[in-house]
Amino acid sequence: MNREIGxxxxxxxxxxxxxxxxxxxxxxxxxxFAYYYSGRNAILALLKNITNKQTINTIWLxxxxxxxxxxxxxxxxxNIKYYAINPFEFNEEIEITTFASRSDIVILNNYWxxxxxxxxxxxxxxxxxxxxxxxxxxQSLHSKADYCFxxxxxxxxxxxxxxxWSPNSKNDLNIYKNIEDKSILKALTxxxxxxxxxxxxxxxxxxxxxxxxxxxxxxxxxxxxxxNTYTEPKKVLISKIKNYINLDxxxxxxxxxxxxxxxxxxxxxxxxxxxxxxxxxxxxxxxKDKSMFNAFKTQLISDNIYPAHLWPNTTINTGWxxxxxxxxxxxxxxxxxxxxxxxxNLWSKNNV
Length: 352
Hints:
Layout (H helix, E strand, L loop, with lengths): L4 E2 L10 H6 L11 E3 L2 H15 L5 E4 L4 H10 L3 E4 L21 E5 L16 E5 L7 H4 L5 E5 L10 E4 L16 H22 L6 H17 L8 H10 L5 H14 L6 E3 L10 E5 L2 H13 L2 E2 L1 E2 L12 E5 L7 H17 L2
Parallel strand pairs: 1-11, 3-4, 3-5, 5-6, 6-7
Antiparallel strand pairs: 2-8, 7-8, 9-10, 10-13, 12-13
Helix pairs in contact: 2-3, 5-6, 8-10
C-alpha cells in the first residue's frame, strides 16, 4: 500500500481490513433520519422548511463556521447575524437567550465533537445543531435541539451523504424539492470517480493516478458549491449511507489519539486541542504564528501527511487561531500512527 495520512477517503470493500475493523464497533440508533446529498443541502432544507411555515426574524450563525455553509445561507437569506464564540474552549455555555429571541433560529456547531450545549427546553429560539465534525459524539447522541444535521462524508468513505433528524420527535423530515440538481449529481459522479481511483493508488500502488484522483476531487468540490437546493438522494447512495451510519469510528480514533497524546513532544509553536472524556474529530493542532503553521504543513506534505486547515477563509479574534486537523481514523494502523508521531516530533525538534 501507498502510505498517505489525511486527505480524502478512498473506496472501501467489505473484505478490506479497514472495513472489517470498523464493523466491530456498532451503535444502536433509534432515530428517524432523513437523507440528503450534502450537509449544505440538509441545512438549506431545514431553514427553508422552517421559514416557509413561520416568520423568522434572525438566523444566527457562529462567527467561526465553515465558509461554504455561511455563503450558502447568505445567498438564500437576508436576515443573518453572527454570535461570538471561541471554538477552542469547551467549558463555557452559550447563553442563547442573551442575543436571540423566540422568533429566531440559532445554529450551534459541535466543534470537532468536543462541544456540549445546555439550553432551556421552552421559551427559546429554534435550535439547529451541526454535527458534521462530531458524528456519534456525546452531544450528537444526546442532543435536545429542535433539529440536527450532519455531513457524513467527512466521517465515512462515501462520495456524498448527509442526514437530518429531530431528537425530540419521530416525525417525517423528508423535505425535498422535486427538481433535478445537476450540480449535485455531477459532484456525486466526480467524488465517486475520485474515490475509486484513490483506492487503486492506495491499494495497488498506481502512483500515476494521484493527479487524476485529485482532479476529480477538486471538480467534485466545485460542483458541490454550486448546488443550491435539496433533492432526494439516489437509492444507491442512501444504501451506502445506511451501510456505515451506525459504525462507530470514535472507538478507533480514541485508541490512536491516546497513543499520540502520550508520545507527541510538546512544541511552543502549537498546542493540542482536546477535552477530557471526549474523542476529537482528529488530531487537532492549533498554531499562533501563520508562518510556522505554513512551514509545518509544507513539511508534513513532503512526508505524505496531509493536514486540513479548518477553515482557511474564516477568521477569529484569538491569539491562537490557525487550526489543522489530521485524520487518525480506521484507515490507519499503529504503524501509520507511529509514523505520524515521528514526523511531527522531528519537525518540532528542528523548530525549537
